[in-house]
Structure formats: structure tokens, C-alpha cells
Amino acid sequence: MTNHWIDFKNADVILVMGANPAENHPISMKWIMKAKEQRGAKLIVVDPRFTRTATKADIYAPMRSGTDIAFLGGMINYIIKNNLYFNEYVAKYTNASYLVNPEFKGPGELNGIFSGYDEKTRKYDKKTWSFQMDEKGLPKKDMTLKNPNCVFQLMKKHYSRYTLDKVAGITGTPKEKLVEVYKTYASTGKPNRVGTELYAMGWTQHTVGTQNIRTMTIIQLLLGNIGLAGGGINALRGESNVQGSTDHGLLFHILPGYLPVPSATVTDLKTYIEKFTPKTKDPKSVNWWGNRGKYITSYLKAIWGTNGTAANGFGYEWLPKLDEGQNGSWLVLFDQMLKGKFEGFFAWGQNPACSSSNAGKVRKAFSKLKWMVNVNLFDNETGSFWKGPDVNSKDIQTEVFQLPAASSVEKEGSITNSGRLAQWRQKAAEPMGEARSDSDIMNELYFRVKKLYQKQGGKFPEPILNLTWNYGEKGKLDIHKVAKEINGYYLEDLIDKKAVPPKTIGKKGHLAVNFVTLQADGTTSCGNWLYSGSYTEKDDKVVNMMARRGKKDIGGLGMYPEWAWCWPLNRRIIYNRASVDPAGKPWDSKRAVIKWNPNKVDPKTKKTAPGWDGDVPDGPAPPLADEKAGKYPFIMRADGMGAIFGPGLADGPFPEHYEPLECPVQENPLSNKHRINPTVKLFYEVKGPHDAPKEKGGLPEDIFFSCDIRYPYVATTYRVSEHWQTGVLTRHEPWQMEMMPQQFVEISNELAKEKGIKNGDKVTVSSGRGKVWAVAWVTDRFKPFKVMNTTVHQVGLPWCFGWQHPEDGSGGDSSNLLTPTIGDANTMIPETKAFMVNIEKA
Fold first, then answer.
1. Pairing of strands 13-17, 42-46
2. 218: closest CA among 86, 58, 114, 123?
């Protein structure tokens, strides 16, 4: 999130799209309802299904799954056409004024693609996506936003195609609903009104997932809603520590703190820093990622300590690296596993046999392994795949090891929620039986692996043998020591020699104050620069900032700066410099996040000096209007500007509507040549412009079925309040099963009548990959869509069930047996929210 949970109460308009907070993030509804009750805020819900969140909405708009960009693109067109954007914010705080290469062309000119597309590689050459540069090496600008090559005019041209008629025809949303939503949300393009957007997997799990979010980001920048209280782009994470796990390098391509994982061609630390450190020639740009050298060096020192020296790049040569072009994402991992490329697999706190897209393919992939380690509270469909439906256990070679793990209340440590808030949790009870905490399991695993290397040798032992691992011996791990290493230490006395007289910044062996003091010369260590300051020292006393529970607020905005600790630097709203005008005055004085104070009093020295009041500012520099020292607001971007034009993405600098891999239309209504995202990774061969599969061009599990009369209905998946993720933790609880006992499928009254299905009937839902039985839930929550003058039905299933428990099979199996192997062009997150199925009475 750019903002945080409590901040929802500060919004004037709340758009929920791609999420269902009332059922899946119920506590968040408290703050949504406060906004409605205290501010008279309007709640807009856009969803294929009339959800429980929608019951509280002022405006509900139905929309066919997979058409979010068309819906939002229409809003961009509406905002520009009706001159509802925040002109000063757009001109001064975004790249709308930048002039783009005159050779750049968009999908409207090239029938669905941007300039530079190579059909053979399915990739773009982005040369024409570049900015025009002046003699100082800075982007040329037109502050009037009228030059035909400026970003604003190119955006206006691009989205002019997204007319009300066209958007209604694609999404199935009635035109009058589109206008109602657009008008209400666009009302926030004023200094005294703010809108926020809440999304979850309903936006990300598409082949255009990244661009779904980008489209809304453009809207928020146009309306001036980024950086303000009650504004922002806010992801509702599906679990209490998803944010924390991502921050700490869970994904294959990032190290902790979002540092890039190097490829093997990046051979030394110097090359790494040069390649991955963005540069700017603009003195008004903070370009905070310019500090990447400090963060990667301090990270290496945290891993290898004194073994990492300047001579070996502080251990960089031991850092694991990707092969050039290697993709280690979720879909590829199991694809390679099925092809026999892996011997072993740790399934740690997960259940991919049910949670993975195309779950049948994943279950087959497990049979190709020699061994699997399943770390969980309960046995599940992953650990017991070898005795699952239609499996002959005699044919399985995989040896499965089950390691019982402690639950969240049986271990101490931190979690970081969606709002970037790191909170320390105490252990409430000892683990049951032989269960152990994840950290204790990892600790013993490390010592055993190290012992084997010491005894037997092996290929490339240095990364393990040279690790610093001073958290405690086997069975005695101190999680506080881990937290302190993440925060970082001063490895030498750190002196500011520029100060007169020289000033001591940090003492050797002491915890780092924050990431501002980290160094690139090996004199500091830090396991994750974003968390530097989370477990620190104040007045020579060690303070776990994450364990704080102060209830002091700032300006009644619900920021509570003394409650736990928020990255970065305890900043509650990121990009908050955009909440003020160029002179440092809040756009909205009643919801001031920060403001420039020329006579700020230092609480310690009592001296007066200019500074910021309010939240921790995005950098201490003066506001933009200060000619000598003023800075742009978007400090993490090299140019300091909010990116309306995004040339760094794989599939286009502007979001463009493409249909899901499986959809009910023969052609993309916006461009008949390119139906699906032209840059997604395909797991099959294609023949012709509509990306239809060859039967022999890949694994049978990867064939897709679009506009196939065998699978005529759009389907989507979602969660329910009564079960947790795939249900491993909740299907073992009889009271949870009593509330939600078995797999179901929601279908409209109209479709039920057409198929002769009654409420409570047992039905079979099938796709080209598999089938599940389900109980029919005939409901008004789904209604047929009118798409391109054709009636399209949509259905929905939860993904919380699996065959392994209840043991009698009465719960049914995972709806992910139906979903395809395809992912987003930028992140590879699977597309599970839009695919095609059939329904028949069982």
C-alpha cells in the first residue's frame, strides 16, 4: 500500500475493484464504513458478482472478468474529455509534460501493439518508447501539455478509443453505470477531495495484472490522489505477512529490500552497482535508488560478515546468480518440474496442489521428484499427492518428508501487513508435539548442511561455509538476533568528517540508526535496508520499534506513529511530498500529511530551523519551489516524477486492453489482430494471429480453449470468509466446515433456468484441464452480461477446498484444477480470475 488500513477513513470516494474486503479483509470494512459515516464518503464496487462489499456500496457496477483495463481506460478518457484532472499536480509532479520519441506509435495506429514489436520473440524493442532529451541530458518538457508528442497528448490519443459504447460492449457494464462511476470518482480531481482504490488478487491474477494496477495509477496521478491522506493505490494482501515476505526476498528475482538478483554475466560487485543503480542529471531529483551500492554492500556484509572483504567483493562472488534470461517464477518452476528438471522440492507453508493454477499439472509434476519436504501444520494435498484421486501410489517414486510446524501463536517474531506496518508478536503457547517454528527448522537445517559440506565437500561450498550465522545453536535460535541483523550494524566507528567539528554517526558494534547511515565501503551491515531503523538504539538503549504500542495520533488522520514501525523510516504514507504544493503547503489543509514549516523548533535543542511537520517526509529537502535545494516528490524514481508513461514494462508504456487467455469473444474488440497480451510467456506453440494452440506444441495440460462451444461460460475464483487460503488450516476445524462444508459454484438464475439446474443440485464444472463437482448455488449475485451484442454468462467458485480433508471427500476438490497455465507478462502471476468452463448436472 502507498497508504495504510486506517487511512481509508480519510477518503471521500473509495473504489473497490479486484477485491472483496467485507468477506476477505473484514477488519478493513471498519475503516471504509467510518469514511461513509463520518465523511459521507461514496463507496463504489466494481465486480462481476454482487458481493457482500457491494451490499454496502453507493454504486455497484457489474463487469466481466478480465476487462478491468477497458473499464478504467474509459475512466481516463472521461476524465480528460471533461477536463476533470488536477492540472497543476499533473504538470509539475508527473511525466505528462515529457516529450516522447516522434517515432513512437500506439495500438490505435498499429492494430493492437506498440511500436517495436517482434512477433518471433514476442518482445518489444523499446527504442521508440524513449524520451526526447535536451542538451543537459534531461527530458524535454512542454508544461502546457499541448505538444502532440508529450505524454499527456499521447495518453489522450491512446484512450480516446475507449468510448462509452466500446467499453460497455467489452465489459458488459451498462453505459449509465459507467458514467455514474466515472463522474463520482473523477470528482476527486480537486485539492479538497480525495479518492482511494483498494484491490487484491482480482486485479493481479490476470495476463495484464500489472497493467491493471498501472491503469489505476494513471487515474490517481491525473486526479492528484497519490501521497495524500485518503488516497493512494492500496493492495489488500491475502495474508498478514505477504508484504513482509515479499520485502524479504521471497520472489526469485529480488533480494531483500527489492535489490535485483544478478545474472551470471554480472560478474562482480562493481558491475552490479553500475548496472542496477539508476542515474539522473537533474539536481532536483532525489533518485533514492542511487544509494543501491550502499544497500547491496551492507546486505553482503550481513550475510558473510568478516569473510566478505573488498578483495572478494564483500562476498559477491558467492551470491547465487541466475542464468542469463532464466525465469524462476511459479508457473515455470512446476513446468520444469514436470519435465524432470528437479530432484527435490520444499513445500514450506504452502499447498500448491490446490493453490496453483492448473493444479492437475502441478500434482503430476510432484511425481517426477525424488523427494519432497512438506512443512506445515497439517498434512495436505501436496504432502499426500501420491495417494490422491486417480493416482496409483505404486507408480510414484517421490519420497515425502512431513515436518510439523508451529502455528503463528506458537512463535515469536514480526509480521508486516499490507500497510507496510511491521508489528512484533509474542509467543502465546509452546508448539504442540514435535512441531517447531520455521526459524528453528531452518536453523537446524543450516547446521546439518554445513556439517555435510565440512565432512564430504561438494560443489561450491563457499556460500554455506562462509556464512555468518550467529543466531544460536540448534534448538536455541534467538529471533531477536535475526531482527537485529536485518536492521543492521556499524562494523566500524562511523565519523562524519564533513561536519565541523567531525561528528560520530555510529559506534562500532552498535545497531544502525537507519538506512541513511549505511555505507558502500563494507563498514556497515544490513539484512534489508528498508527495515533499517526497525530494531535500533536510542540514547544507547536497544529499542525494538516493532514492539511499540503507543496510541498518539497526528492531526486525527489515524497515522499513530508510535504504534509499531512502518517502512521506510516509519513513514505512514509514501510519496507524501506530493500531498503539498510546490511551496510546501498542503493541497488540503484539513488532511495535511506533511507541511513545510519555516520556523520548525527542534525538540532537543529548542533551536528554530526550516523543516517538515507531520508524517516522516519523503526526504528532508525543502519543497520543490526552493530554487536551490527543492526536490521532486517521487523520490524512488530516477526522474522524481510520477510515471503516467511507463517505458519499463514488458507489454507497453500505456496499459491496453487485451482479452484473457480464455474468453468468450473471437477478437479483441479494440484491435482484431491481437486478442491476448502479445508479450505473455506461452507454454505452447501458436498458429496465426489469434494465438490458437497447436495440439503438439507443448504439454497437453497447457492447451487452452477460447470460444470453444464445449466451454461456453466465463469463470472466476475467489475466497470465502470461512476458510483460509486452500483451507489447510480451516478444513480441519469442524466449526468452520459446518459453516462452509463443500465446494460450490455460483450461477445466475438465468443460466440455471437455461441448464435446468436447481439450487442445491450437484453439478460438474469442467474446463479443458479438468473437472470438479460442486453444489449449485443459484443466485441473483451473478447476472448475464451483454458483450458485443451477445449474452455471456459468468460463474464463480471458491478455491479453498481439496480432496485430502475432510477424509471422506465430502468437501470436493480444488477449483484450480480448472485454471490455465498462463501468467502476467511482467510478473508471471497466474491468470486464475478469468477462464472458460462448462456446467452440467452431475
1. parallel
2. 86
Q: Judge contact between 345 and 337, C-beta under 8 A.
A: yes
* Bridge partners, residue 233, by sequence: 197
Neighbours of 425 (CB within 10 A): 16
Catalogue the E-assigned strands of 615-755: 713-718, 744-748
Distance CA 1, CA 198 (A): 9
Instruction: Say if residues 233 and 217 touch (Cβ distance below 8 Å).
Output: yes
pLDDT at residue 687 above 50? Answer: no
Greater confidence (696 vs 813) lies with 813
Q: Where are the beta strands (DSSP E) in 257-340?
A: 259-260
pLDDT, position 763: 98
CB 681 within 8 A of CB 823: yes
pLDDT digits (tens, 9 = 90+) for 374-391: 999 999 999 999 999 999
Give the three-state DSSP class for 303: helix
pLDDT band at 696 (very low <50, low <70, confident <90, very high): very low
Mean of all residue pLDDT scores within the chain: 95
Look at residues 678, 661, 656, 646 and name the one whose alpha carbon lies nearest to residue 162.
Answer: 656
Confidence of residue 238 (pLDDT cuts 50, 70, 90): confident
Give the integer Cα–Cα distance in Å for 576 and 583.
14
Confidence at 694, pLDDT banded by 50, 70, 90? very low
Decide if 716 contacts 700 (C-beta within 8 A): no
Compute how many other C-beta atoms are within 10 angstroms of the C-beta atom of residue 502.
Answer: 10
CB-CB contact of 639 with 282 (8 Å)? yes
Q: Cell numbers of 441, please?
A: 527448522
Tell me how far apart the alpha carbons of residues 23 and 32 are, in angstroms, rounded to a whole number.
13
Ranges assigned E (strand) in 365-404: 371-376, 399-404
pLDDT confidence of 579, banded at 50, 70, 90? very high
Which of 578, 627, 647, 637 lies closest to 132 in space, CA to CA? 647
Using a pLDDT cut of 70, give the percent of the chain over it.
98
Higher pLDDT, 600 or 476: 600
Q: Give SS3 for 110.
A: helix
- 68-81 and 209-223 are packed helices; what angle lies between their axes, rounded to 10 degrees? 20
Q: What are phi and psi of 395, to 5 degrees?
A: -90, -5
Mean pLDDT of all residues in 600-606: 86
Please give the grid coordinates belonging to residue 458.
Answer: 561438494
Give the type of residue at 10. N
Annotate 480-497 with DSSP letters as a single string: HHHHHHHH-EESS-EEET
CB 716 within 8 A of CB 794: yes
* C-beta separation of 252 from 109 below 8 A: no
Kindly state the cell numbers that stand for 97.
509534460
- HEC assignment per residue over 576-642: HHHHECCCCCECCHHHCCEEEEEEEECCCCCCEEEEEEECCCCCCCCCCCCCCCCCCCCCCCCCCCE
Structure confidence by residue, pLDDT tens digits, 810-824: 999 999 999 999 999
Per-residue pLDDT tens over the stretch 282-297: 999 999 999 999 999 9
Q: So what's the pLDDT on residue 685?
A: 57
- For residues 141-159, one letter each, b for 16 or more C-beta atoms within 10 angstroms of the residue's C-beta and e for the rest, the string is bbeebebebbbbbbbbebb
Q: How many other β-carbons are positioned within 10 Å of the β-carbon of residue 753?
A: 12
Note the residue count of the chain. 842
The dihedral built from the CA positions of residue 595, 640, 656 and 236, taken in this order, carries a sign that is: negative
Q: Which three three-digit cell numbers place residue 143?
A: 508544461
Written as one string, the DSSP assignment of 111-172 is TS--TTEETTTTEE-GGGGPBPB-TTS-B-B-TTS-STTBHHHHHHHHHTT--HHHHHHHH-
* pLDDT of res. 692: 47
